[in-house]
From TrEMBL:
Name assigned to this protein: N-acyl homoserine lactonase family protein
Positions of the Metallo-beta-lactamase domain: 34-236
Keywords: Hydrolase, Metal-binding, Zinc
Gene3D superfamilies on file: Ribonuclease Z/Hydroxyacylglutathione hydrolase-like
Co-factor requirement: Zn(2+)
InterPro entries listed in its UniProt record: MBL_superfamily_lactonases, Metallo-B-lactamas, RibonucZ/Hydroxyglut_hydro
Length: 250
């Protein structure tokens, strides 16, 4: 690794659903979207944005979900620890894990980063703790023994404006995203505040939005950022992911 801030993308699994799950009214064959994780390698430390799924969602290729079935899955080698090792990064060297939110497909790999401090919005942590839901909020994913930094609102991770955690409420009560300032410009790691680019193009929230008013405010901020030149990496956009090179600095 160098002394320059770098960003790496990894896919840690697959999320299969009907098109209408993302953009209500859309029809067609089932979509297969990525379950991304991003390594932010800064001269002052290493952070991950989201960590994929827990081992209970691992499948053998021979036992993969049918292409027309809703669900989550990952295969051998797709866990975040293996992804990191593939680029010679020790999972134990990760200083921070920034969870966009605490749904099962965004924090299921937290346990694989034993020395990281988990950064999450306080209101998201409280929601997960007080309202456990099978298939959404499960303590086995996020209650993994590391130190937790429960923040409220924006947070400048390194104090230099290069990695900013910003609230993007809507999908959940405490969803957050990260804006990374690279030499080529800003990149916004959206998480599930916006599943796909088509959602933003159409300005249509998915049904899986707990606060529609906040969700639309978030979409308006994303649209403004995109118009200003910010590159947005969406939460589960298979079409966009086909253009991403994994394990290579973006």
């Amino acid at each position: 690794m160098t002394d320059t801030l770098r960003l790496f993308a990894f896919n840690c699994g697959w999320f299969q659903c009907r098109p209408g799950y993302f953009v209500e009214g859309d029809e067609g064959d089932y979509l297969r979207g990525p379950v991304p994780s991003y390594l932010i390698d800064h001269p002052k430390g290493r952070a991950l944005f989201d960590t994929g799924m827990h081992v209970r969602y691992r499948r053998e290729l021979a036992d993969a979900l049918p292409s027309d079935k809703f669900g989550l899955q990952w295969f051998e080698g797709m866990d975040i620890a293996t992804r990191l090792k593939a680029i010679d990064v020790d999972p134990g060297s990760i200083d921070w894990v920034i969870n966009s939110h605490l749904h099962i497909d965004h924090c299921g790999g937290n346990a694989l980063l034993p020395n990281a401090t988990i950064i999450v919005q306080k209101r998201e942590l409280e929601t997960a703790q007080h309202n456990p839901q099978a298939g959404l909020y499960e303590a086995v994913d996020y209650d993994t023994g590391q130190k937790i930094a429960a923040i409220s609102g924006e947070h400048d991770l390194f104090g230099d404006g290069s990695v900013r955690i910003v609230p993007t409420y809507g999908h959940t009560q405490g969803h957050q995203s990260v804006i990374v300032r690279l030499a080529a410009g800003e990149v916004l790691l959206a998480g599930d505040c916006c599943y796909t680019e088509r959602n933003l193009d159409m300005m249509v929230l998915p049904r899986a939005t707990v606060d529609v008013e906040q969700g639309m405010l978030t979409f308006e901020r994303l649209a403004k950022a995109r118009a200003g030149g910010t590159r947005i990496l969406f939460g589960h956009d298979g079409r966009q992911w086909a253009t991403i090179k994994e394990g290579v600095a973006l």
